[in-house]
Amino acid sequence: MNTSQELTPQSAETLQMRMKELAATMAKAADSLQKGESIELQYVADEIGNVQQLMKSLAGKLQEHPLLASSEQNSNDMSSIVEACRQIEIRQQAIDKLKRLQLVKSFDENDRGAFEEMSQKVTSVIETLTNGQSEDRKRAVDLVTMSDSPYRAVYEMVNRPEELSDDRWMENQRLISETFGRNVTLAVLRGRAR
Fold first, then answer.
1. Structure confidence at residue 21 as a pLDDT band (50, 70, 90)
2. Burial profile 138-170: b = 16 or more Cβ within 10 angstroms, e = fewer
3. Of 41, 53, 79, 94, which residue is most buried, by most CB within 10 angstroms?
4. Are the beta carbons of 51 and 18 closer than 8 angstroms?
5. pLDDT band at 3 (very low <50, low <70, confident <90, very high)
6. Which residues contact 45 (CB under 8 A, 6 or more apart)?
7. Calpha distance 10→85 (Å, rounded)
8. In DSSP terms, which residues pair with 106 in a beta bridge?
9. DSSP 8-state secondary structure symbol assigned to residue 166
10. Phi then psi for 152, rounded to 5 degrees?
11. Coil/strand/helix, residue 151
12. What is d(CA 154, CA 144) in angstroms, rounded to the nearest whole number?
């Protein structure tokens, strides 16, 4: 892992693994010193410096990250760094789905207003994901990713309808209709929306 790593749960877990390896190296060095054996302390010191630098770098990037609420940006321990990186990843996935939904349009001019309203709702959720408080952002992720999400329903119907079970198809139809109305529902179901 280098100082330009991405902020993902994997990068935080890699740092956590490096810290555990460092702890094992330090324990081994301490054991060798207690036995009076000669060891290379410069290697241990260099590893301590490298791990500290990586931790500072990761914590610094979290402080600047736009997908974290201000209360989440000051992660100083490993568990909060891992959780912050996990939140970034799931929020980015939710935003990616929502941005795809912003591109969904109907081929029928009569559906334009309904799709503009849907786009406004999508934009509002993106705004919450990028500017809301921590709990609001978590609720927005749930709004996009939960099985009863109308946003997820539109995404599934537009991107992979052939993979859906009959029950899921019917549930998606209900969710879309309740949230986005008849025009969006019919456009999606009849293949007029892409």
1. very high
2. bebbebbeeeebbbbbbbbbbeeeeeeeeeeee
3. 94
4. yes
5. very low
6. none
7. 8
8. 193
9. H
10. -65, -40
11. helix
12. 10
Which distant-in-sequence residues (6+ apart) come within 8 Å of 132 by Cβ? Answer: 69, 140
Q: Which two structure tokens, joined as six digits, stand for 145?
A: 């990713």
133/46 Cα distance (integer angstroms): 39
In the chain, domain spans: 9-64, 89-189
pTM listed for this prediction? 0.79
Helix (H) or strand (E) holding 37: none
User: How many Cα atoms sit within 13 Å of 108 on the Cβ side?
Assistant: 13
Buried b (16+ CB within 10 A) or exposed e, 91-100: beebbebbee
With helix as H, strand as E and coil as C, how does 167-188 read?
Answer: HHHHHHHHHHHHHHCHHHHHHH
